[in-house]
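re: that chain from earlier
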Amino acid sequence: SMNLESLYRKVLDISQQHYTDSKYDDSVDLYRIQDLYDCVSHNQIKSKEWLIAEAGYLLADDDKMCIIGAWYGVLSHMLRAETQCLIDNVDMDPYTKVIGERLVADLNPQPSWYLMDGVDRYIENKDWYTVLCSTSCEHIPPNRFFELMKARPDDTLVIAQSNNNKSELEHLNTHSSVTDLADQCMICDIYYSGTMEFHGVTGKYERYMVIGK
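^ sequence. v structure.
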């Protein structure tokens, strides 16, 4: 099973290195340390453990997974305990690759990074990928989300998480229920759907997860 201690240790080591680098290089963004801690917050880890518990057994070693909005690649790190499948982390923020590659450096096989729009990356390679994953559907504009789901082949496994937390400005595509999320994902054959309550900065909110084809 997932060794969280090794993940946390890596996050601390990367943060320390980042802080040290900042003493000699003015361009180093110190805010990233806070962001890196946020990506392994209680809520982030809980939602990813939930995903692995429900989706891990569905992943075969010959699968090819596209993770849209991968951030620093924590999910790809945690998934390595479950599967040897090919994992592509896709994010538009250049810094995610700098930090993310350090985070997954000793994993075998090593997840890859693509710094580009995740929807574009997936659509361009939709016939090659067998798994489409996003744990941050709330960040994808609704029209782009529709394009993404409409483009995917029928036999693609979809693993999607979203929430109903409207208090965050970047949440452009919140969902009202897990059924709402499944409908938007255009999933006909649902393997799993569920709701989990989380505590955020402004109070309780619900996170939804749907897995299916």
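The longest helix spans residues 4-24.
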